[in-house]
Amino acid sequence: MNPCQLVPASHFTLEQLVEAYNHTRVDYMVPMPMNAARLAEYIHVYDVDMEQSVVAVDGERVLGLAMLGVRPDRAWVTRLGVLPNRRRRGVGEALLLYLLAASDRLGISLVTLDVIKGNLPAHTLFVKWGFHETREMIILRRPPGPPQHTAAGRCRWLSRAEALAVAQTRPRPLTWINDTASLAHADCVLGLTVNLPCGSRGWLVFQKHRYYLTRLTMATVEGDPTAVGRALFYYLYQAYPDIDTNVENVAVTNPHLAAFLDAGFVEAFRRVEMYGQPLHGCGGGPWPGGTVSPSGKARR
């Protein structure tokens, strides 16, 4: 097993981290290219702690990286990746254990992560270190286009503050990506409500980027979720017919799933959410395949 040194991600520039991340994803089962602007937004929206996130290096070469989102009640393991030719040598395990030990030092009691369904090596690693599956989630995409259905009823658009307020009423637990804290960090968050003649009513909250809609979440307050979902999508795409929509982590048990499909969404892939606990008593390392170097320097 080749040794690697673990260096806090804060010792690297965004450009260096983007280059490392993209190299770890060249053969990934779901392409997820990154650039510096997107990574900066990702770090901000998801409360990624760069001091607790980590990069694995061998001399001047970056072998992999992993990031840790940190909030008062839990932590989130994300963007864990290793160069294809250095996998299955303990690097990914060393990265994971670093984040679990960091969570312990921070006093976190719950660590969560999402793994792409079918990624058996990653899933096996997470199970080895105590993670268990909690739910299966779908990533959905919708190309530009007008509403698929008409809808009767009354629609009211919500301000950012109103949208965040209704999003806060959703039942827990929420995935890290769709948590209200993530919405609160995002720009251009909007929403709308519908009241249908049958008495059904509900709301939808989303983020509007220049070229696409994302972070979409909805709830039925009363009545039929499918009817509410169809009406919400009718008014949404009446207003925004010309841009894409991507929606992450819709639970397979979501009562609005039929409305998503009726509105023209297609499944891109699935993730499995997993819960685990911090790794107690490990201090700063070393662990299998790696040694920790808090004073490591950025690679130029």
Task: List descriptors.
300 residues; Aminopeptidase; 13-stranded mixed β-sheet
Structure report:
The chain starts with a strand and ends in an 8-residue tail after the last strand. It has a 13-stranded mixed β-sheet, sandwiched between helices. It is about 25% helix and about 35% strand. It has helices at about 15-25, 35-45, 90-105, 120-130, 160-165, 180-185, 225-240, 255-260, and strands spanning about 5-10, 55-60, 60-70, 75-80, 110-115, 130-140, 155-160, 190-195, 200-210, 210-220, 245-250, 265-275, 290. It contains eight helices and 13 strands. With about 300 residues, the chain is an alpha+beta fold. It folds into two domains: about 5-130 and about 275-290, 3-Layer(aba) Sandwich (Aminopeptidase), CATH 3.40.630.30; about 140-270, 3-Layer(aba) Sandwich (Aminopeptidase). Mean pLDDT is about 90; it is low at about 285-300.
Q: Which strands sit side by side, in order, in the main sheet?
A: 7-8-9-10-11-6-12-5-4-3-2-1-13
Name of the CATH superfamily of the largest domain: Gcn5-related N-acetyltransferase (GNAT)
Shape: elongated
CATH class of the largest domain: Alpha Beta
